[in-house]
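Hello forum,

I keep getting stuck at the same step: I have a sequence, I want structure tokens, and every attempt I make locally crashes halfway through. Rather than fight my setup again tonight, could one of you with a working pipeline run this one for me? It's a single chain of 227 residues.
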Amino acid sequence: MRIDILSVVPELLESPLSHSIVGRAIKNSLVEIHVHNLRKYGIGPRRNVDDYSYGGDAGMVMMVEPVFRMIEELRAERDYDEIIYMSPDGERFSQPIANELSLKENLIILCGHYKGIDHRIREHLITREISVGDYVVSGGEIPAAIVADALVRLIPGALTDETSALSDSFQDNLLSPPVYTRPAEFNGWKVPDVLLSGNPKLIRAWQDEQALERTKLLRPELLENSI
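Reply #2:
Ran it on my machine without issues. Output:
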């Protein structure tokens, strides 16, 4: 998989993409993630990538030309399955979307900034818009890092134990069951006896029950969506 991220503040992505699971996956050549500075195609001597909005609204808007030229440069080198714009009014990012996108070969993720992007980019270049929640942040860089992280951990070999992702929250529309580690008792707080039983069948039944009960209690809408 290859992910190209377009940003006006690429420095914001340096740390999230350099460490832990994502960093190891890049180091082990399981994924390529390239962060591109849109100012490469900025306008004029100051490499401007934004301008005032028509209509006189407050806030600056990312211009169409730098984005168009950067995407054209990338598309001249390879085909892309999706050109994604991180937007607060996009479809809500979810585990099923992550599962779907993790199977793609090449993705572009455009990070908005300022007041947003010229709408012509959305009309003519973007193939999918994704939101990480019903709130607004300063730019699309952190949301893009969230999406990239969610995809990379699903790539075979990215996790030490590949079956770990199968029991994550939101797989099968359920939250994960509680997890414990040593010691078996601390400060009078004990690990459930079933997890110490050594009986895989009983443990799995307990985990399934706990996942269902936690989902009913904390996120009942997930069960409604699965019907």
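Strands lie at 2-7, 32-37, 50-52, 60-62, 82-92, 106-111, 128-131, 185-186, 189-190. If your local run keeps crashing, start a new thread with the error log.
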